[in-house]
Design goal:
This protein has 189 residues and is mainly alpha-helical. 63% of the residues lie in helices and 0% in strands. It has two domains: 46 residues; 109 residues, Up-down Bundle (AhpD-like).
Length: 189
C-alpha cells in the first residue's frame, strides 16, 4: 500500500485531469507513479513530457533505453520501475530470463558488445553517479559511443533515478500486470 493516497483519475480536475488523460492515452490507464505525483500536476506534466522526450530523442533505440531503465531501477532497488521496464522489454520479445540476466549484470547476447558496454556504464551510473570515471567515459568512446550518445545514456539513467526515487519513497504499489515480474531477480546485496 502506498504511503500516500493515490489520486483517483476519475476524480481529478484541472491540470491533473489533463495530464492523466495524456498518460491514459498512452497506457490505457493511469499508473500508480503518475497517480502519486498527481498532487503536483505541473511536475507530473513535466515528468511525463521529459519521459517521452528521453525515450524518443537521440539515436539510441528505445529498446536499449528500456534496458538502461530496468538496470538503473534494479540498482536503486525500485521494484515498481524494475517490473515496469521488464514488462516493456517482454513486449519487445525479451524472455523473463533474458531480462533477469542483463539486469543482474550478465552481458546480453541480444545486444552488441558496444551496447553491453553502455549497459555496464548505466549500471555503475545508476548505482552511484560519483563512481563514474574519465576512464569509463573513454571506454565508451573506444567502444564507439559518441559524446552525444553518452549524454543520452546519462539522461536516461538520470530520469530513471528520479522516477525510482518517487516510487520507492512513496511505496507505489505494483500494477496488477507487473506483479511477479521481478520474482526471479536476486535481492540487491
Amino acid at each position: 500500500m502506498a504511503r500516500i493516497a493515490l489520486l483517483d483519475p476519475d476524480q481529478a480536475t484541472g491540470k491533473a485531469r489533463d495530464v492523466f488523460e495524456r498518460v491514459k492515452s498512452y497506457y490505457r490507464m493511469v499508473p500508480g507513479l503518475q497517480r502519486a505525483l498527481g498532487y503536483l500536476p505541473e511536475t507530473t506534466d513535466a515528468l511525463w513530457s521529459l519521459s517521452q522526450a528521453t525515450v524518443r530523442e537521440g539515436s539510441i533505440p528505445e529498446e536499449l533505453k528500456r534496458v538502461f531503465f530496468a538496470v538503473t531501477s534494479y540498482e536503486v532497488e525500485c521494484e515498481y520501475c524494475t517490473a515496469a521496464h521488464m514488462l516493456a522489454l517482454r513486449r519487445e520479445r525479451w524472455s523473463t530470463e533474458e531480462c533477469v540476466e542483463v539486469i543482474e549484470g550478465k552481458p546480453s547476447p541480444r545486444l552488441s558488445d558496444k551496447e553491453n558496454a553502455a549497459v555496464d556504464f548505466a549500471r555503475v551510473l545508476g548505482r552511484r553517479p560519483a563512481a563514474v570515471t574519465d576512464q569509463m567515459v573513454d571506454n565508451l568512446r573506444a567502444a564507439g559511443w559518441t559524446d552525444a550518445e553518452i549524454v543520452e545514456i546519462v539522461a536516461s539513467v538520470a530520469l530513471m533515478r528520479y522516477t525510482s526515487t518517487v516510487a520507492v519513497a512513496l511505496d507505489v504499489p505494483l500494477e496488477k500486470v507487473m506483479e511477479g515480474m521481478g520474482r526471479k531477480l536476486r535481492a540487491r546485496p
